[in-house]
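To the structural biology subgroup,

Please find below the input and predicted structure for Thiamine pyrimidine synthase, which we are adding to the shared reference set this quarter. The sequence is reproduced verbatim from the submission form. If anyone notices a discrepancy with their own records, reply to this email rather than editing the shared folder directly, so we keep one authoritative version.
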Amino acid sequence: MGKLNVVLDWFANTNHTGFLLAEKRGYFAEAGLEVHIDGEVHGVMDLHGTDFVLGPQISMLDCMSRGVELTGVAVLTQRSDSGIVSLKESGITSPRHLEGKRLTHWAPRWFHGVIGEAVRLDGGDYGKVELVPMDVGDIVATLGTVADATWVYANWENEELIAAGKEINFINLADVDPLFDFCAPAVAATHQVLRDRPAEVRAFLAALDRGYQEAARDPEGAVLAVKDGLPAVSEAMLVRSQRHLAPLLLDQRGHWGAIRPERWERMADWLVANGYYDRRRPTEYTNDFLPV
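Predicted structure (tokenized):
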């Protein structure tokens, strides 16, 4: 069997149900693959000695600018599910309302560029936002205490807050401007595996397509089938989270993974124009390894 290693962008959660299903249902094995999936990755994105790595498009481009040889080969959702979450009592209902509020942030310079642009487009001043440097591990304990808002994926942190009985506001950044509907999370492959093992890459992505089609078709059954590989939260939260994601997983053909060029190109061009990415590359992304 061909052996492939995958590093997730975070701990396994409902964004990754398709991976866990492909393993549990034997889709990888049927394709002649032995796939090792690792998570709990934080900090600056890198290959970590693996064949595939997950993360937002912006982190992938940052890797490329540092000489890391990878190419985006799939995107997890057909519309970005990331944005700014806050407690309802904070009154933050649009990016400009972050003025005078405490926003958590992490290290990359592009973080401030992207969120600053969202605030600017909404008529606000990012310079008036109080920045709190931290990697948020416990969203419930963070909001309303050390910070007022943070950038999250709606499928997980929002559901954690709701499960804790919190009333929240959520600003999906893709609603602010199409620029922010970039590819996140996405799947990248090393140039080596694409060059030397293209048939295995195609088989791997085809198995994921099967897994995510199941997650879209039967979100409750899918997530409960792999709950042992997910954090120890209530089944109700897992089901809510997977149902939230289900409409976002597949394209109009009913398949998973396709990177729409406009999603990638808008953000990549903006990053270059604003000095957050050095130059465009012809190998940034491809749909050539996805099922036809």
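Summary notes: The first strand starts at residue 2 and ends at 7. The beta strands are 2-7, 33-38, 52-55, 70-75, 82-87, 102-105, 130-133, 149-153, 168-172, 186-190.

Regards,
Lab coordination
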